[in-house]
Structure formats: C-alpha cells, structure tokens
C-alpha cells in the first residue's frame, strides 16, 4: 500500500496515475473518456449559466409583478394591507419549513437506534487525486442530503475521518451540525466489538446481498478511483477477516459497463431498498439510464431531484448536490 500511496497526483484528468505504470500518453480509450468528461463539464457549465439567468429573470418578473400590484392599490390602507398579508404568508412558509426541518432532525436522531447502519470508509484519501477527493466530498454531501430526506433514514457513519478528508469536510459550512457519526478511527477499531456484523460492500464479492439486516453494519469504500484500484476494498476486507457482499445488480439489470457504482449511488440504493424492499425498483431509481444497458417498459419514474436541489440549509448547497447526482460517466468506474 505504501508504494501505491506515492502515486497521488494533483487532480489532472490523465491516466498517468496508474498504480504500476510510468506517465504515458493517453490510450485511445482514455482519450475518448477524457473528451467525454470535458464535454460533460462544458455542458454542465452551460446549464448552470442558463439556470442562473432563468432565476434572475424570474426574480425580476416577480419583483415587477409585486410593484405593479402595489401601485394598483386604490389607497394607502389597501397598500399596507397587501404588504402585511405578504409578510404573513412568508412567516407561515418559514414556520412550515422550520417544522419540516425539525421532523427531519428527529428522524435522523431516531435512526441512530433503529436505522440501517451504513459506514463510509474514509481511509483512502492518500490514493486519490485532489479532484477525486473533491468528488468524494460532493458524494458525501449528497449521501447526507438524501438520507436526511428519507422517511426511514439510515444511521450514517464517516470512519477514518482524519487528515485531508477531515479538512475538506470541515470546510463545508454546517458540517459540524450534521447528524452523522464522525469517527477519526478506522471502523475496524471504532466498531471492534461488532466485528462479526461488519459487511464490506464491494462489487468484487462473490456473495450477493439478498436482504438487508439491521443488525449488520454495511461499509462502503469512500473511494473515487475511476477503476484504478481494482479489487482494493475486497482485498482490505479479506485481510481484516470481515464479510463482504455485492449489490445483486446482475439479477435485475444488464449493465452497459461495469457494476462498480459511486459511493452516493450505493448509499442511495441501500436507502431505497429499506423503503421499498425491492431491489429492482431501487436500482432503476438510482442508477442512471446511461449505465443501465437496457431500458425497461416497466421502469419506475426517476426520483425528483429538483426537490433536493431546492433545499439550501445545513451546509448543503444545491449546486453541489446536483454535481453529485450527475457524476460524469468517466467517474462511474
Ligand atoms: C467507486 S467504488 C470503489 C471501487 C474500488 N476500486 C474498490 O475496490 O471498491 C466505491 C465503493 O462503492 C461500493 N460499491 C460500488 N459498486 C458496488 C457494488 N456493485 N456492490 C457493492 N458495493 C459497491 C464499494 O464499497 C466501493 O468501494
């Protein structure tokens, strides 16, 4: 592992950080991937600018409408009434929001006792480039946001949360208020009395999950590696003598590429399964269509991400969540 750590690069989109290779020119396949990623990034920037412009226009339209409404008032009394009713409406809306927020908080607190235990293992920072660490942080934000919205949230852990990973997470506004277990120790130390219940989720396992067991603790590798570190988590779990399992993807889907998913996709699938008890529905709702080989006429509707993007509290900037949702295919390992 020591030798592997030395391969950390500075966030460049080249394939030069292959574990056993010297810097080389990009292969045809890598060039294609890079081009695809660049196109995706350009499209994303364009979309972001368009959304910003639309929001600005909408704000201006509403302001104008309000001013017209005010100026059409027949008397000062009517004008004051209108202002007051708008103030009341706002107050009501804010009260409702605060109520919803409180409900979410209560659900998260309850999840500590009754929720599915999901650990994100953050011990791989040394194996990632800066941009990959950044991506992982975005995925963690997304996991937290999705969990917070769940009717039956999971009990989320961040273990091995130290060094660069911790620095990056601490920089998020509101991170200190997250209702999540933050643990600087490794899961193997922090949860040593529960070793027999630890299950490392890894696409390389021979065991496919059937059910989820609330007594177990499911570990997801906090790694964005563009498939550079093949088999790494499987090796780690085997060395530690803990159980492994993969998601039962092949029983339900024919994927167009590998079955290695991103951290946020895996966490979201687990949460969906808790809610639906249906692997197929969970896969269809979370795995992007471009990664699924075939379309299915019975495909359920995709979850409404817009709703998630509207929320802007507890250090969860909406744009960040969007970035996580649409991880470019180059990052899908
Ligand atoms: C981007 S993958 C990292 C792949 C990495 N090369 C490895 O060895 O695990 C992030 C994490 O998501 C989880 N994961 C991804 N696809 C999975 C699958 N099909 N089944 C179970 N877990 C999966 C694993 O915990 C994995 O470590």
TrEMBL record:
The reaction(s) this protein catalyses: guanosine(9) in tRNA + S-adenosyl-L-methionine = N(1)-methylguanosine(9) in tRNA + S-adenosyl-L-homocysteine + H(+)
Domain SAM-dependent MTase TRM10-type intervals: 104-294
Q: Which UniProt keywords apply?
A: Methyltransferase, S-adenosyl-L-methionine, Transferase
What is one GO cellular-component annotation here?
nucleus
**Which top-level group of life is the source organism from?**
Eukaryota
Biased composition annotated in UniProt, kind: Acidic residues = 306-316
Q: Which GO terms describe its molecular function?
A: tRNA (guanosine(9)-N1)-methyltransferase activity; tRNA binding
Give its E.C. classification number.
2.1.1.221
* Ranges annotated as biased composition (Basic and acidic residues): 38-73, 291-305
Query: For the region Disordered, what residue ranges are annotated?
Result: 1-73, 289-333
Q: Where is the composition biased (Polar residues)?
A: 9-27
Q: Which residues form the active site?
A: 225 (proton acceptor)
Give the EC class as a word: transferase
Task: List GO BP terms, alphabetically.
Answer: tRNA N1-guanine methylation
The protein's name: tRNA (guanine(9)-N(1))-methyltransferase
